[in-house]
Structure formats: structure tokens, C-alpha cells
Amino acid sequence: MTKEIYCRALLLLPVAHSYGHIMLVNNLFVGTTTVCLTKFTPTAFLETIQKYQITVCPLVPHLVKFLNDTPLLKEYNITSVKAVMSGAAPIDTDTINNFEKKTGIPLTRAYGMTETYNAVTRTRPPPDDNRTTVGKVTPYTEVKVINDGGELVCEGEEGELCVRGPGMMLGYANNQTDTSATLDSEGWIHTGDIGYYDQQDFLYTTDRRKDIIKVKAYPVSPHELEEIVKQYEGVSDVAVVGVKHQRLGEAPKAFVVFKPNAKVTAAQIQSHVEDRVASYKQLAGGVKFVDVIPRNPTGKILKKQLKECDLDSEFSV
């Protein structure tokens, strides 16, 4: 990224999170003017970009989606923005394409976690960009993909991502149990993320190990089902979690937010999924329409909260 692009950055990410903190430190290191927005509102966000002629903006996926959907965008001039980065949570290809088509701004992605601090991988701007990948491994960082037995897997084969390099955590404070479970004797951090390499050394992430749904012992990827549901016209947002099922043990259930004025039924969503997946991957846990998908400040879906909270009182329409 050139000096011309990286001259005025907008920071609205929480600096207590590694993504926000590394962006702040990086800006200070290279001498980037940084405008901090302490609280997000649609108007304040767009006004700040216009007023300070922001050139680069690190975001999270739900803010990228906000820019895709908001009618307020027509009221502000954001042509000063030359680059947008998305991190902290997965972002789907349609959201990327819609954003770039609507704004004309290239969107790059990065993969990392609090335990690794810095970005583990990063994508390049178009035309070198591959929309379905999280990019290639950053310098001085190693990423390996292993199976349940700890052995390296082949290209194209999914496994757990393990990361090693400078800047990684030394352990969890006062928690040797979790440290031993995450950080091995050779310095590899076992991320709990599932992914794979392709033949060009691009890395792909497909799910979180703890989020995988076991339907009659068959593994089902919530991410795969979420991508399918998002393709249905009228769907604005979705999260899929595993719920207890008397016959299957566990079954996928979709929590769906529909677009304003959209008329979508649970049967339509289920039929849409049934036509595209194997029988054991179908939404046997049902479909529930909600006002909002609960997320943390950096945009990650709070799937545990979806499972445990009384959605009728807190999230449902």
C-alpha cells in the first residue's frame, strides 16, 4: 500500500481488540494521520470520511455490508477512500463483489486472531485478488494444516490451521490448562480453525472446529449452509448453529434476518437448502426469523448466545 493511499486512516475498531490495536500501532509507525471514531453511527461514520478525506479504512464484515445496504451513501462523498480492509470475521464473496461494484473501492482481507496478534495472511488488491481465499501467508509467519492425528495434510484437504512466528502469544495469563491445549512444545498455535491450501499456496478458511455440527456423526459445516441461505432472495443475514435433535443427535438450525418488505417463509428457506445439499445437511433443526444476528464488537457471530439465550424475548421478530 503506497504512502498516497495510507495517509489518512479512520479507526473505529476497538483498540482492546488485536485488529484495532495493530492498525493503531501500524499507523503510528508509518506516520499515518489517524482519525478515531469512538462510537459508530451511520451518519457519524460517513460524515467523518467526507470531512477528513479518509483514504484507508479498516472495517469488519457487518460494516462492509452496511455500506452495501445503506441509502445514506448517496448523501456523502467517500471518493477519497482508496482502500478498505476487512478482518476479524469471515466475509462472503457476494458482499465483496457488491461493495466493490457499488463504491469502486478495492477491498482486501486478512486472517488472524488475538493469539497471533498480527495478520497471518493477507490478500492482494485486484486484479491479483482471489475472492474466496484469505490470501497468502505474511512474511516470517508459518501456517501448517494438520489432521486429527497431527499429521500434515495434502493440498486441497481440510484440516486444523496451526500458526507459528514472531509476535505470537507466549500463553494465556494464569491459565496453563488452556495454554497447553493451544500452544504446543514447538511453538505452534492450534487455532481451532478449519482450512486448506490450494496449489498456488492460497489459504482458505472454512469453519471453526468447535462450530462443526455432528449429524449422526457426519460433520456439517455451518459456514457452507450460511452461504447457501444467503443466496436466497430476501435474506439479509443468517447464522447456522447445531441444536439438539431427538433422532439425529444434533441438527442444523438457521436464524435468518430478512430484508425490509421481503416475504420469506421457513419452508422456502428449507426447500432452497434441500435442493443444494445432501440429506444429512438439511435444516432439520428448523428456521427461525430474528431481528438481528448477535455479534461481538468486531462482527463475529455469537453462536453460543444463539444457542443459549431466550430468542423469543431478545432477538426474534
From TrEMBL:
Database matches in InterPro entries: AMP-bd_C, AMP-bd_C_sf, AMP-dep_synth/lig_dom
Keywords: Ligase, Peroxisome
AMP-binding enzyme C-terminal domain mapped to chain residues: 224-300
GO cellular component term of the entry, any: peroxisome
Primary residence: other
GO MF annotation terms: CoA-ligase activity
A family per Pfam: AMP-binding
Compartment list: Peroxisome
Keyword Ligase listed: yes
Record domain AMP-dependent synthetase/ligase: where: 9-172
Family: Belongs to the ATP-dependent AMP-binding enzyme family.
UniProt name for this protein: Uncharacterized protein
Species of provenance: Petrolisthes cinctipes
